[in-house]
Amino acid sequence: MKFCSNCAAPLKRRVPPGDTLERWVCEQCGEIHYQNPKLVVGTVPEYEGKILLCRRAIEPRYGYWTLPAGFMENDETTGEAALRENLEEAGARVELSAPFSMVSVPRVNQVHLFYRARLLDLDFKPGVESLEVALVEEAQMPWPEIAFRTVSVTLKHWFADRARGSFTFHGEDIK
Amino acid sequence: MKFCSNCAAPLKRRVPPGDTLERWVCEQCGEIHYQNPKLVVGTVPEYEGKILLCRRAIEPRYGYWTLPAGFMENDETTGEAALRENLEEAGARVELSAPFSMVSVPRVNQVHLFYRARLLDLDFKPGVESLEVALVEEAQMPWPEIAFRTVSVTLKHWFADRARGSFTFHGEDIK
Does ipTM come in above 0.90? Predict the structure, then answer.
C-alpha cells in the first residue's frame, strides 16, 4: 500500500487519461505520482596515467572498488554533481574534462554518467563512504573487485581510448 | 505539508545521519524521501538534411516548436526512451545514432539528453501531445518559436557540427 505525499490518501495503480502506462494515482487530490530513473554522476580522475579509485565503506558492494560517483541532487548540474562526489567520497579536487560515458541500467532504474577529470593534487583522503582511496595504474586494476559493471565498462573504454590516443563519448546499456 | 508514501505519517525536513542536505524524513517509519533530477530524452531526427520538429499541443509552451523528447520512464534505457518519444510525439520511426547533447537545467531539476537519429520514412503524424509535425531545413528554423533553450542549444550545435563536417558530443548547462 502506498499513500499520497500531498494528502495522505491511499494511492491506486491506474492509467491516467491520455497516458499509456499505469501510475500511482491519488483519487482524492488527483495527483499523479510518476516514478523515473535516477542519474548517478561521477568521474574517471586521472593523475600521471593512474586512476583514483575508492574502496566502498557502504552497501551495496562493501569492500569493492569504484570510481567516485553518486546520485545527482536537485539544484545542481551534472558537472557540479561530479565535483561534489569527488570531494565527498575521495576528498579529491579535480578539473572536469568532457563527459566520457553514459550507461543505462534499467534493472535498477539508473543512468550512470562519468566525466573525464584531472586530479589537481595528492591531498585526497577517504570520505565517510570510502574505506580507502588509491591511485591505480592499468596493470594493477583490481578487475574482479570492481563494484559495478558501469564502472568496469567505463574504465575499459578509458584504457582502450588512451591506447588509441583519442577519447570519445561512449553510450551503453547494461541489461 | 507532505506525507510519507509508505505509512502516511507527516514528513519533516531534516538532515539524516551521515548526510549533508535536508531531506523529507518520516519519523514514524524512518524512510528518507530523496528528490532527484529527472532525465528528459529525445532525438534530433534528420531526413535529407531537414530536421523533424513537433509543435506542442500541451503546456508549457503550447504552440511552440520542439524536438521529439519526453521524460524517461522506469524500466527503459535512454535509447529506448528516445525511440518511444519519437513514436509517441511524432509517429516517427528513427534509427538512433550516437548521443549528441546533454544539457543540465538545475532550475527545473532536469537533464535533457538528445541522440542524433535518422528518420526512416515519411509516415510521421502528430501524436496527442503535438499539433503538427514537420520537416524543417536550417534556413526555415522557427528560432523565436522554439519551445525550450535545451532544444535551441542542441539544434545550434547540430547545424554547427554539420557545417564543420563532424559531429561530437556536447555537454552544457542552462543556469
Answer: yes
